[in-house]
Amino acid sequence: MPWWELLLILLGTMLMFAVIHFIAKNKRPFRRALLSMAVGLGMLFAVNLTSGFTGVSIPVSLLSVLLSAIGGIPGVTLILALNLFF
Q1: How far is C-alpha 65 from the chain's CA centre?
Q2: SS3 content of the chain, % helix, strand, coil (to 5)
Q3: Distance (Å, rounded) from C-alpha 84 to C-alpha 17?
Q4: Is the pLDDT of residue 1 over 80?
Q5: What's the Rg (C-alpha) of the chain?
Q6: CA distance to 63, 66, 79, 81, per residue, from 19 (Å)
Q7: What pLDDT is attached to residue 41?
Q8: DSSP state, residue 59
Q9: DSSP code of 25?
Q10: CA distance 67 to 54
């Protein structure tokens, strides 16, 4: 997948989150959208950082990074649940 498609997906996701936050009448919708994506990526990093203690890790791939950026904390939780069952 070319880099411009990834950039387009991430910008589209951020725009979608910004519209959702704007409809919910947040004061700074773009900041909230960026924060939502950053929290998901931070959660993915935190899970992999603590994998030595917990024994649970998520392989970092394009799919896992996009799902954690798009889904946030529920996205990372979904990856962990799927990793547990499969």
Answers
A1: 6
A2: 80, 0, 20
A3: 29
A4: no
A5: 14
A6: 24, 19, 26, 29
A7: 93
A8: -
A9: T
A10: 22
What torsion, rounded to 10 degrees, do the Cα atoms 56, 61, 65, 66 define? -130
- pLDDT for res 3: 82
Question: Total domain count for the chain?
Answer: 1
Rounded to whole angstroms, the Cα distance separating 64 from 73 reads 12
pTM of the model: 0.78
* Residue ranges making up the domain that contains 62: 3-85
Give me the helices (H) in 24-61, please: 29-49, 51-54
Q: Which amino acid would we find at residue 57?
A: S
Q: 30-61 pLDDT, tens per residue?
A: 888 888 889 999 999 999 999 999 999 899 99
Q: How many CB atoms lie within 10 A of CB 54?
A: 9
